[in-house]
Amino acid sequence: MAWILIVFLILLGGLIAPFGDILGTKIGKTRFSILKLRPKKTATIITIITGGFISSISIGLLILVSEEFRQRLFVDIPFLQKTLDESKKALIPLQEERKELEEKIIQKEKELNQLKNNIKEFRRGNIVIKRGQTLFIAEINSSANIKLDLTKILNEADKFVRKIVLPVNKEAKNILLWRPSDITNIETTAAKGGNWILLIKSATNVLKGDNYVFVSPDLLENKFVVNKGDVITSSILGESDLNFKSINLKIKSLLRETRDEIKSKGSQVNEINTNGNFVKKIRDFLQENQNIKFKLEIVSLRDSKTVEPIVVEINILKIAS
Questions:
Q1: Which of 178, 76, 89, 94 is closest to 136 using CA atoms?
Q2: Distance between alpha carbon 264 and the CA centroid of its chain, in Å?
Q3: Does 136 fall in a domain?
Q4: Strand order in the sheet with 310-319
Q5: How many domains does the chain fold into?
Q6: Rounded (5°) CA angle 273-279-280
C-alpha cells in the first residue's frame, strides 16, 4: 500500500508540475497582472501557488489513504510533545540536584586540598598546635585599666605558647601575632561593662620551632550556664528497659544530650564530669523495684559559668503509676 501511494504521489506531482509551469508561461505571455504586479512576478506567484497546491494534495491524500500517517500526525506527535514537556519539568529537580552535587564536590575538593596541606605540614615537622585549638583562657572584668589588663593577659599567653613551640629558645618573645582590629574590638566590648572570658585560639597549625603563631581571640560573656540542682536532661524508661544494657545506652545518650544542651547555653567545656557511684545506685534501685516506670535525670552539682567544669550526678527515680 505504501509503495502504491508513493508512486501515485510521484505521478501526481509530475502531472501537476508541468501544468503549473505551462500556466505560469501563458500568464506571462498574456501580460496578466495580479494586484498591479508585473506580469513576470505574477507568473512566479502562480507557479508558487501551484507548488503549494501539489504539497496540499499530497498531504491530503496521505491523510485520507494512510491510517499510519494519520496516527503519526494526530496522535504520536502531540504525545511526543507532551512527553517532551513532562521530561523538561522532570529535568528541573535533576538540575538542582546536580548543582547541589557540584557544590558538595567543590567543598570536598577544598577539604581535600586542606588535608593535603596538613599532610605536608606533618611531613615537614611535628605539629604541636592545631588550627582552632584554644591556647589560653582568661577572665576580663570591667575596670579603668582594660588596656593594661589585656597587655598582661597577652604576655602570659605568649609565655605559655612559647613553652610549647620554642621550649629551647629562652630568648624568644612576642611570638603571638594578632590583628590590631581584634585588640580594638576586645577593648571596646569589655569597656561597656560586665564580666567576660577571653579565649585565644590558634588560627593555623603550628610546628615545633616556628617563630610565630597567628591567633584569633574570642570574647564571650562569662555567665552562669547551669546552677546547682538544675535538671539538665531527663528521660523516662519503661518496664522493658529494666536491664543494665538498656540503662547504660540511655545514660550515654543522656550525657551526649547534656553536652549539647550546655553548649547551646554557651559553655566552652568539652567534657562532663560525673560524681557519685551512680552504677551502685542504679543497681540497688533495680533490685528493689520491678515492673514500674522510672526516670533518669542528669542533675548539676554546682554552679558553672562559661568555662567552668560541668559536674553532674545521675539520679534514678520511681514514677507513680
A1: 178
A2: 21
A3: yes
A4: 231-237, 293-300, 310-319, 272-274
A5: 3
A6: 130
Whether 172 is covered by a domain: the verdict is: yes
d(CA 222, CA 162): 27
Domain membership of residue 89 (yes or no) is no
Mark whether 256 and 205 lie in a shared domain.
no
What's the domain range around 262?
225-319
Pairing of β 176-177 and β 213-221: parallel
- What DSSP designation does 265 have? T
Q: Give the end of a domain, one of 222, 254, 276.
A: 222
Q: What pLDDT is recorded for position 99?
A: 84
Angle at 307 between CA 306 and CA 312, to 5 degrees: 85
Low-confidence residues of the chain, pLDDT below 50? 123
Sign of CA dihedral 255, 260, 263, 268: positive
Q: Provide the pLDDT for residue 237.
A: 77
Position 75 scores a pLDDT of: 56
Is residue 106 in a domain? Answer: no
Helices and strands (H and E) in the chain: how many: 8, 12
Give the C-alpha separation, 202 to 177, whole Å: 10
Residue 174 identity (one-letter amino acid):
N
For residues 196 and 143, give the distance between their C-alpha atoms in angstroms, rounded to a whole number.
Answer: 12
Phi, psi (rounded to 5 degrees) for 177:
-115, 125
> How many angstroms separate the Cα of 271 from the Cα of each of 120, 255, 259, 263, 313?
31, 10, 7, 11, 14
Report the DSSP beta bridge partners of residue 226.
304
Whether this prediction's pTM lies above 0.90 is answered by no
